[in-house]
Amino acid sequence: MLAEFAPLALIAIAPTGVNKLQSLCVSSSGIPKDSANIWVPESCAEITGTQVYNTSLKKHVASLWQNQRAFIFCLATGAVVRLIAPLLENKSSDPAVIVIDEMGQFVISLCGGHQGGGDRLAQLIATQLGAMPILTGGSASLELPAVDMLGVPFGWCRGEGDWTAVSASVVRGEPVQVIQEAGSTIWRTARGVEKSSLCFEETVDATAEIWITCRSFTDKNSTHKPSTHKSSKQKSQFNLKDHNYTDQSQKSIITWYPKVLWVGIGCERGTPRKVIEAAIENTLQEYQLAKDAIAGIATIDIKSDEVGLVELCANNNLPLRTFRREILKHISVPNPSQIVAKEVGTPSVAEAAALLATFYPSHTDKEPSEEILNSSQGKTKGEMLIPKQIFRLEGQPGAVTVAVAQSEREYTGRKGKILLVGTGPGELQQITPAAQTAIASVDVVIGYGLYLDLISPLLRTGQIIEALPITKERQRAQRAIELANWGLIVAVVSSGDCGIYGMAGLVLEELKVCGWDGKTPGIEIFPGITALQAAASRVGTPLMHDFCAISLSDLLTPWEIIEKRLQAAAAADFVTALYNPKSKTRTKQLTIATNIFLQHRNPNTTVAVVRSAYREDEQITLTTLDKLLDVSVDMLTIVLIGNQNTRNYCEWMITPRGYIK
Ligand code: SAH
């Protein structure tokens, strides 16, 4: 849980506090060693797993401040305020600071709430400890999206602007105009956006503007007006907005830069890094495109070891996409060259590579096959913004060709993950704390509408919630994989246990079909209380001896197989849980199953019929095998058939284990 906030410092001054902090660390898997230290004073030195600070706490916190992403204090809030006050700089660079009371009842997000991730960290810790998160940021308490967090899941870069003023406009509910020229619009479906005052249509009375763009600003200090593109096509597209904007220059503005620009490079062997760098910078400047919007560099595979290019990518943390000439030559480009074709076997390197990179902007993308390219007839998902420019730097060797394409979908630069989460039978209390934390931590939650409703208090503002109908399980799995491949952290929720007639198996099968390498996207599975456990706990201890589960749904399994298993379970005297016993259209299966069990077991065998266990409309019936078909049964019901020793005692179903003869 804490891994994404590492390195972090946990600080307590008394044993109870230290215990609280230790319990947090224990439940955090995947955290690198030494990147989450619990600091204690000399007086707590004997507690294992802690480190002692030898100076004053004030000096110690000051010495850690620059290198930590988060601080978690188990200390009085007043004391923490005094400790950190001299160290605070500004909200975009300050670490997250969290305060927990010694009893573990409250978790306060003290500062670094948005950009430092403090609010999210406080929520995760609170879920873990069963405590109340205290978030006092305007947007958090009003359940409005935080404008300085909107683009984080998609890897957008925060640009210029008056972030405080625009956030305040949103919190005050004033109309805030969104002008989006780049990147995907999925963020608009995030929880809270709908009820916010963000306007996507042209609004005359907006007090603030959010630009989501790849264009740079012409004058950072005065008007904050995003520049117009040099190409006439782009210009006409933006003319209207620019014009309106100039009329009302009093508005506060912020900019987000989605990473949509793929820079195609061709260069002479041995061109130094600084020449390539200058070529890119000059070109972007001339066309007034933002450097922060660069997704990556694209070129031909024979340049994958070009020292200047490799260095440039490493220094700027940019991916280097390389393509074979056989692939590059399929792409239709504005400026094909016969000379280049003769030399390297494709009429374009820079333009074709830039366009090709826009084709598959996600982390896991491989080079597209020739088959795909043929069917796309040379068209890509991107648009050529800057056709090739040739650049040389005086007094320096080498020459560079630069071309820039804009992709429809931004490069997130993140490795996505799918969390497969079981949400138990229905009541929030029956969801494991780990599953609750998992749900609260993700960017996207995908599931069947009914289950999402049941867990709605766990869903948080800013999350994208996708409810898909019950029959669309495959689409749900494919959607999760698509979003995770793109770099998002996605939870797929199933009721009960996700791996028992749930979505987990389908997601893994679907990944297998896609040729998954077992690692990307990452998978983590969070078990839940399955229906048979939930039902059993409501009626007694029917599962005290060997038992099995059989689903009576023959939609995916041939009925002969189900019947064979029913015969075997009945004959072997297993206590048997029947999942999916009956639907509106599937009615005969339960009759057949009952008759099979009657062939092997006494008609008096105890049977429990549990409908909607742990939900508001729960119904429980204890009956016997011969009367089972008189009880009303539907798809929200599970049937537990006892073995030959199971008894009904004072309305409790008891299967003996064998202790008492
Ligand atoms: N993954 C789920 C099972 C999904 S199959 C789990 O582990 O519980 C759906 C079937 O589960 C339903 O037809 C019903 O038989 C059973 N079921 C799920 N939730 C239930 C509940 N709260 N009460 C009774 N039966 C339930």
TrEMBL record:
Entry annotated with the keyword Transferase: yes
A biological-process GO annotation: cobalamin biosynthetic process
Coiled-coil parts of chain: none
Record-annotated Tetrapyrrole methylase domain positions: 417-628
Stretches assigned to the Cobalamin synthesis G N-terminal domain: 60-138
Keyword annotations from UniProtKB, A to Z: Cobalamin biosynthesis, Methyltransferase, S-adenosyl-L-methionine, Transferase
Keyword field contains Nuclease: no
Involved pathway(s): Cofactor biosynthesis; adenosylcobalamin biosynthesis
CDD domains assigned to the protein according to its UniProt record, in alphabetical order: Precorrin_3B_C17_MT (cd11646)
Region feature Disordered, mapped onto this chain: 220-239
Single annotated GO MF: methyltransferase activity
Record's protein name: Precorrin-3B C(17)-methyltransferase
Organism annotation: Mastigocoleus testarum BC008
